[in-house]
Amino acid sequence: MKKLLLFAGTTEGRELAQYLSRCRLVCDICVATEYGALLLEEHCRGHHIHRGRLDRDAMIRLAEETGATHVVDATHPYAKEVSANIRACCEALGLVYLRLVRPELGTENPVRTVSEILPQLEADPSKREEILARVCAGGYICADSVREAVRFLECTDGAILAATGSKELEQYCSISGWQERVYARVLSAADSMDAAVRTGFSGSHLICMQGPFNAMMNRAVLQMTGAKWMVTKESGHAGGFPEKLEAAAKEGATLVVVGRPAVETGCSPAGIRRYLNEAFDLRPGQTVTLAGIGPGEEAEMTGAVQRSLREADLVIGAGRMLECVRKTAPALSVLEEYRAGEIVHFLTEHPEYEKVVVALSGDPGFFSGAAALRKELKNRMPQAEVQTLAGISSVSRLSALLEETWEDAVFATMHGRSDNIPGLVAAHPKVFVLLGTGDGLRTLCRTLLAYGLEDVRIYAGCRLSYPEERVLSGSPKELLDQMMDQDTPNLTVVLVKNAQAQSVPSFGLPDEEFLRTEVPMTKSEVRALSVSRLRLSENSIVYDVGAGTGSVSAEIAGLIPRGHVYAVERNAQAVPLIRENVRRHCASCVEVIEGSAPEAFAELPAPTHAFIGGSGGQLREILEALLKKNPEVRIVINAVSLETLAEITDCLRCLPLAEEEILCVSIARGRKIGRHHLMYGQNPIYIITLRGAGEKGAGENGVGENGVGENGVDEKGSGERGSGGQK
Predict the structure, then answer these.
(1) Going from the N-terminus, what domains does the chain have, and what CATH number goes with each?
(2) Which residues pair with 672 in a beta bridge?
(3) From residue 272, how far is each of 6, 31, 74, 268, 637 by CA, in Å?
């Protein structure tokens, strides 16, 4: 039977013990001090805890008594002798030895060594102040040992905070005036305090506290002692080294770091957990936090997000997110990945990562990948606990810079999808648009100009929160002129203000607003009824078959700001007419497809809705093609002849279609003659509403992933122009 013996005494050792408790694996744990045992008893219930320092022979006896087969050495990196004894014990008994190694903590700050500074100080004592001012300008100083650090400090002035442990305190007594200069910070354990008192530290020069400490606490101690120098060991992330570095920088003190005695080999905490999972068949739980890190800089992160990053076993995100994360927690394990499926696959393969943070830009609830990832986690990792932490969105950041409100704005994006931005800008006084990276700002300006929106005002926030943050403003043409000889700014969000914005009717646009020539057009009353039968959602994918003048396409575009319309038309003379009507109505989500149906459908995504206003005698073939694309597509057909109605009735018998409604609409318009009004009737129009009756998810391409209507499908109907001939 496999049994585990853990030598703890460090933060990593205690965290591993807690992990084993959560996995319900009881093991024997050795700690050197009573204080260490108390911490384990408080946080790790169920384990067998052994107190006291052990030599090699005592370790062998304990391993034999406990029946250990595996040993984890999670002792302090400076405890060289202890680690050597543990290895010797394992070799003597043939046990599996696992060394838990703290990750080395990198830093962007300049690092200087005592060995290079001391010769300069000793060669010319008269230039000490000048030399020290130069070498202490940011970063920290490394010493090979406490003895070397003390030798350096003898050449300096000012108070010293010694945070290297009680065993090293005697060496500080060789510093001139140490009783006044040196303050000792030791553990609040009896043996540590006794050792410090025996060395001669007492009163305000003896600080007894349990670490690791946050930056605020370190700053408080530096302020209280007035220390100009802080001596510490490179204790890694778990030992609070980043917080010491931050505190020293903010208080104008210099960190003197005693480097590790040797480069260790072994496993990271995650590697140890992964090995134990397999060896002891452990099934840990996982918590996945979807954290919004704000616009990009560390200062814009919320406290909750920063705390989750510091406590994480693993952080996942795109490259830019990880750059920001590394500044907050440099020693974190990271995975550069943003695709939801790949993230979930990795987590299922690596259950040793208990606390996982997925870093997302801005806020997870605002144009974020959080929704897709949350869905993947729910489907493939139902046992995982998923939580979300809000972040500061780029919209709120830009609003603050511009002193603008944003509760009265609408939102769109050009990053990852194509919203009908010209239509939104034409109808709303304020539109925020996320551009992401690339040539988005130029593209937006050109698009607005193409749709006749040259008088709008654009405010573009570029690289928000970063040192190179800037806000550009102007009309679309003015911004294009500004960027003529410049690189396109990336990471941009814009506010588009349109003082002439006019809300357009939801449907039933006046016929006079469309160019017609000789091309038939679905009249406004029939168009309104037909479009209402489609039951569109904001992200519908619609085919307008036999688009004619494009009036139905333009009408639909105003109802689906996140969707797309494919205006299919075989008449070459009608194609430019459609494009002009679409431009006039700022319907950028309409794409004109010149060609005959159903052949023109081949390269198009699956429709959720379809409107058939003209079929060119290919009605059955068109319906078959639509059903093949999406078996649940919703369809509205306009017909003007009884023969076409009969053809539809025949298709209902032969194809997997469900009939919802057949309307016969007769419209009469009044005309004033003298003092009287006479009504003139128009040809009756049949409006037929159908829906596919096939299985959901079948078909050539399946249902579009960008969204479906309330019935799972989208359809569209044709106008008064009728299905007798494709327009």
Answers:
(1) 4-99 (3.40.50.720), 111-258 (3.40.50), 285-392 (3.40.1010.10), 395-497 (3.30.950.10), 511-692 (3.40.50.150)
(2) 677
(3) 12, 19, 10, 6, 65
Q: For tokens 């046992």, what's the residue?
A: 383
Three-state secondary-structure class, residue 152 = helix
Measuring CA to CA, how many Å separate 71 from each of 8, 357, 379? 11, 30, 37
Instruction: Tally the residues of the chain.
Output: 727
536-557 pLDDT, tens digit per residue, is: 998 899 999 999 999 999 999 9
598 close to 618: Cβ distance less than 8 angstroms:
yes
What is the DSSP secondary structure assignment for residue 175, as one 8-state letter?
S
Bridge partner residues of 182 (DSSP): 160
pTM, rounded to two decimals: 0.61
Query: Collapsing DSSP states into helix, strand and coil, what is residue 186?
Result: strand
- CB neighbours of residue 607 within 10 Å: 30
Nearest-angstrom CA–CA distance, 165 and 192: 8
364 cis-preceded (ω within 30 degrees of 0): no
List, in order, residues 6 or more apart from 687 with CB less than 8 Å away: 526, 529, 530, 533, 636, 637, 638, 661, 662, 663, 664, 665, 717
CA pair distance 195, 179, nearest whole angstrom: 16
Q: Which of 43-57, 172-186, 385-399, 538-552 has the lowest mean pLDDT?
A: 43-57
- Beta strands 457-462; 492-497: pairing state: antiparallel
Q: What are phi and psi of 127, to 5 degrees?
A: -105, 20
